[in-house]
Amino acid sequence: MTTHDLIGKTITNIYGIHAITQLEYFGLDTATIFVELNGDTVIHFPHTHRSQLHKTHLPAKAEAVIYDITDEMIQPVKAPNHQPVQKSTFLHVLWHKLFPAKTAPPLPTPVITFDKPRRYIKNRKITDIIWYPRVSHGDTFLQLDNGCIIGETQAAPSGTGLAGLNYYYDLKSLALRKGLDYETLMNK
To answer: Does 88 reside within a domain?
Structure first.
């Protein structure tokens, strides 16, 4: 099967394997995304618009990256010990240097807001393949029948939360993030 054969197939679930590699001063988050098509075929996320895709078995470590109840939200990456990860900031380090006996004020909790209604990923048909010709590997995206676009980032700096499945509301939001020099299979 080629990437072109994905057109018209239905995404029934998406799975991922996340790993955190901690080096001396920095780390690297890695992810591998698997796409379940039509409820019976599992493939790796395509890396190029010319990829040869082969059926694969879902590894035991793979977890669904979309909640079972609804697919409105993508699950956050878990730390290896399944504890929340809280990063220190410069102000927290400075606080502990200046006032070692006092506890630092808590980190603010990020609030995620959506200015548009969310679009679903599960049980959607793939309608187009989008890629960036200036990148030889890894900038391939799948456009779904509701207009949303998904992609995969295999590696990112640790703690950024960027490794794994990427979701774009529409082609405009993808172009704002990645640029306008994309090509689509349907426009070729």
So the answer is: no
* Residue 176 forms part of a structural domain: yes
What's the pLDDT tens digit per position in 98-136? 666 655 556 555 555 555 566 778 889 999 999 988 876
**Using an 8 Å Cβ cutoff, are 43 and 35 in contact?**
yes
Q: How far apart are CA 129 and CA 184, in angstroms?
A: 6
Distances (CA, A) of 156 to 82, 84, 134, 161: 20, 19, 20, 8
The C-alpha atoms of residue 31 and residue 39 are separated, in whole angstroms, by 22
Whether residue 12 is contained in a domain is answered as yes
Please state the domain count of the chain.
Answer: 1
Highest averaged pLDDT of the listed ranges 63-72, 84-93, 109-118, 142-151: 142-151
Domain assignment present for 101 = no
Per-residue pLDDT tens over the stretch 77-101: 444 444 444 444 555 566 566 666 6
Question: Where in the sequence is the domain holding 17, given as residue range(s)?
Answer: 3-78+109-184
| Count of CB atoms situated within 10 Å of the CB of 164 | 24
Cross-strand bridge partners of residue 151: 141, 166
